[in-house]
Amino acid sequence: MIKAKVYPTTETFNFLLQAAISDKKEGFKLVLVTWHKMLKMKVTPSVYSYNLLLRAVRECSVGSQESLKEVISLINSRSEWEPTPVLRNLLSKGKKKTSRFDKKMNSTQVALMTHSPVPLRELLPPVPPYQLLKFIRDGNPEPLSLNFSSQSVAAESPKRRLLGYLAKAVDLPNLVARNPNLKGVINIEEVGKRQDRLALCGGLVGILQDMNLYDAKPNLKTCTELMLSLPDNSAEEELLIEMMKLLDIEIDVDFCNMLIKKRAMSKRHKDADKVIELINELNLRMNNVTFGVLAFTCISKEKTKEFMKIMKLGGFRLNQVIAGSLINNATFKNDCNFLTYVLDECSRQKLKPDTYILKKLEDFRHKILNIYKLRDQDKTVPGYFLSEDFNKSFRKFSTYYRNWLRSQDVVIPEHPWGKFKYTEEEAKLVVSE
Question: What pLDDT does 412 receive?
């Protein structure tokens, strides 16, 4: 492109970022290199660039630790980048969008809006996410002691000032900033999790702050990618939601569904239930996917009864996916009463079981029967399965299960090895020999 005197644009680097993301093993490292090449060539990233960056954070690994450290060392080097004469000519002629980073600011504004080498802890103390959340909701900066002059604070809009404050209050490393902030980083060992990779990019508010610098307003896709890469911490997730409200980003039911699933998968069932309050607050309508992910949180018979009531009030019915999730929870908990209740609801709502449901039920039945065999052989089994309550509930379930299969006109498929079994006559012949 340089030889052809074609100036690379944001779209050019967006395609390069997409190519880097296709490498799931080392894509994150390649994205970092591409990102800094873009910044050095004075190309302004767009919201789509940040969405691709966050996708790399979520999907791609970093490769070997040695290669990552080499990339970080290269990014952190303070040597000036010298463009070739042809490219220098293109840079002087290219019409580039001016970012806030290139505008003249006083020293206080620079300390607020950029990752500068100024000792920021002297300006703002680092605070945890739950205090940042309280700061946004209360709208009062005084408890956190902002040390900016009244003139500079008045000149900044509340949203911009708050974004700047939050980014510096968290004070995380940021490998995607023009001047990378690696203060406090001694060594990098494991970056295998998506939340670790997000932390290297400045975390939640660090990303939003960088987007603010380049006038790249985040959209719902940006916030969804951020939410999926955040640590399993409700304070940070709620902080993201408050920031979305602050930035006038409309939250839809699909975002809420993914948040419920994320919390349910990390066993934060009470926090997942709280998302329903957010859905009601925003006047959103729940859909089948909402109940499908809420089913992950139903880990008891009592909770499932409440879940069924909410479904009925919303005008929804059980489907095979929701029933499969409930049965999976019941078999995992080894709760026969819970399992019987779910099967009874399936019958009442005339829901036919699919292969997944039948396999789960059969696997559970065989698991308990194998435990009983071990018990009869005087081998050690968990005490829970020896209790009279469990034995009584399992007998009740077994009786109900047989009748339920007949009512559903279901024939359990034979095991693939079943065709190799001897018939009764063949077995007698083998024994007689």
Answer: 60
